[in-house]
Fold this sequence. Notes:
12% of the residues lie in helices and 28% in strands. By secondary structure, it is α+β, with helices and mostly antiparallel strands. Strand 4 and strand 5 (78-81) form a beta hairpin.
Amino acid sequence: MPIYEYKVTEGEKGCAHCVERFEIIQSLSDDKLTVCPECGAPVVKQISAPSVGGSKAAFDDRAKAAGFSKLKKLGKGEYEKQY
Ligand SMILES: [Zn+2]
């Protein structure tokens, strides 16, 4: 069964359980978790980092493919466009 990661919604206090990402195993037929099972704070599903090929280079490739530019900070207010 897939494991989903959730974290308390930005700006919500949450509890020790949900203030950091927590994992929950849900079957596909289960409803998406919307609140922390411990404290009831609203939670958001996290995008799981791919376990394979999740290197920074791969990320750059994806960003490039998606049309994002990567800017390297050279100094105060100065950026070099890397691609
Ligand atoms: Zn919580």
